[in-house]
Design brief:
The chain is an alpha+beta fold. Helices cover 35% and strands 16% of the residues. The protein has a 3-stranded antiparallel sheet with strand order 1-6-5, with no helix packed on it. Strands 3-2-4 form a 3-stranded mixed sheet. The structure holds magnesium ion.
């Protein structure tokens, strides 16, 4: 049983001595494209190089994944699986912008955030227990915040 002082400090809300969240966006490039162009929502979007050249799939939306399309696959193979797939040329500047915006949001939850890739980061949650009721709720708050914050559309660089 925790003593009163320990409970007041927030320790005991989690059974862990240390708590680090790993956040990873789903189908990041494709999700950013759909966010920026809502008419693509629900379509089998594949983010790739110029549609006129041979390239590989950098990201596939969930509707595209239902056809078996995966990242790293050639676009030729992707179109064989789904002839009506919607090719979208990747926009690295836009992905960097959204990635930096996500990092800014994570820093609202913790002062220690470590980017791991363009769509992944680690968030040190140890010591932030006083701001949330339980770690699952903290995770839900981060997820909700990043989903709602994904709506504003930045200018395409
Ligand atoms: Mg990811």
């Amino acid at each position: 049983m925790l003593d009163r002082r320990t409970r007041r400090a927030g320790v005991g809300k989690t059974p862990y001595e240390r708590l680090v969240f790993h956040v990873d966006m789903d189908a990041f490039f494709a999700s950013v494209e759909v966010m920026c162009r809502p008419k693509l929502r629900g379509l089998p979007v594949i983010v790739c190089g110029k549609p006129t050249t041979r390239s590989v799939v950098a990201a596939a939306s969930y509707p595209a994944r239902k056809y078996g399309i995966r990242s790293g696959m050639s676009t030729v193979e992707a179109f064989n699986l789904c002839p009506h797939a919607v090719p979208v040329e990747g926009n690295p500047g836009q992905y960097i912008y959204v990635s930096l915006e996500l990092l800014r949001i994570y820093k609202e939850f913790s002062t220690i955030v470590e980017p791991y890739s363009i769509d992944e980061a680690f968030i040190e949650m140890t010591g932030t227990e006083w701001t949330w009721d339980n770690c699952e709720e903290a995770g839900r708050q981060i997820k909700a915040r990043t989903c709602t914050s994904a709506s504003p559309i930045s200018p395409r660089p």
